[in-house]
Amino acid sequence: MSDPMSKPALPKSRLARVAKGKRPQYFSDPATDKLLSMTLTLMEELSVTRERLDSLERLLASKQVLAQAELESWAPSAEAALERAAARTAYVERMMRAMHAELEEITRRGTPASDIDPLDAVGS
Prior knowledge:
The protein has 124 residues and is an all-alpha fold. It has five helices and no strands.
């Protein structure tokens, strides 16, 4: 039975994912700021991924599901390797989307673009 004097629970408010207002510019070239932002975002994502992976490996080892040596010596099947390659390619394409858009804009304006394709430079 609920207390008639208690206040109803308020819905949780969500913070905006994007800050309002103009972004601060730290470098004279806005492209450098974009690259810094991209790099910091990747650092954050990688840090979270490493922590989660460490948690999973420790849980698997503590439950004696998987030994560290098994993990180190495991190799993906041909099918898994192809799936990983496809996922990696899609990931790199998402990461490079802004660069490709800017490259297309430069090309549309008739400005010579670099001979190096950003995706080729990253490798697969």
